Automatic annotation (TrEMBL):
Biological-process GO terms, alphabetical: proteolysis
Span of the signal peptide: none
Gene3D superfamilies: 3.40.50.1460
Molecular function via GO: cysteine-type endopeptidase activity
Species of the source: Rotaria sordida
Residue ranges constituting the Peptidase C14 caspase domain according to the UniProt record: 13-131
Name of the molecule in the record: Peptidase C14 caspase domain-containing protein
Length: 134
């Protein structure tokens, strides 16, 4: 996806936000992991998602994941948003916060909600500050 975005036109910045990586007991991939008392510490898949992609040096991108590599994300209350989406929505429109500052606040909120078991992960290659609401 990142490679395709880089060649889709004159994009100045690509931002991908992924709120995924849930433990699903019905999925065979997770059966042994979901039974682990500390499932948030159990890797879901092997290498990081971007380990094999080379992007052009003039490309700017930010990949925002709901949890650290190799960990899972917590759902929120039934019918509601996940910890990550709730925290992201709480800070997305805050004025004068650049992307890094916003994600720091999102991370602080998620760490508190999850008893320090989930932390979002930001992977970026930015050459300037980006604001959702400047």
């Amino acid at each position: 996806m990142l490679r395709d975005l880089n060649y889709s036109g004159n994009n100045l910045l690509n931002i991908i936000i992924l709120d995924a990586c849930r433990a699903d007991e019905a999925n065979d991939t997770w059966k042994t992991k979901a039974s682990n008392e500390e499932l948030y510490l159990t890797p879901a898949f092997g290498k990081a998602l971007t380990s094999h992609i080379r992007v052009p040096n003039d490309s700017q991108f930010a990949l925002i994941f709901s949890s650290d590599p190799g960990t899972v994300s917590f759902d929120g209350k039934p019918g509601g948003n996940s910890f990550f989406t709730s925290a992201l929505l709480n800070h997305l429109t805050t004025s004068e916060l650049d992307l890094n500052e916003m994600m720091s606040q999102v991370g602080t909120e998620i760490l508190k909600k999850s008893s320090n078991k989930q932390r979002p992960w930001l992977h970026s290659c930015l050459t300037e500050k980006f604001y959702f609401n400047q």
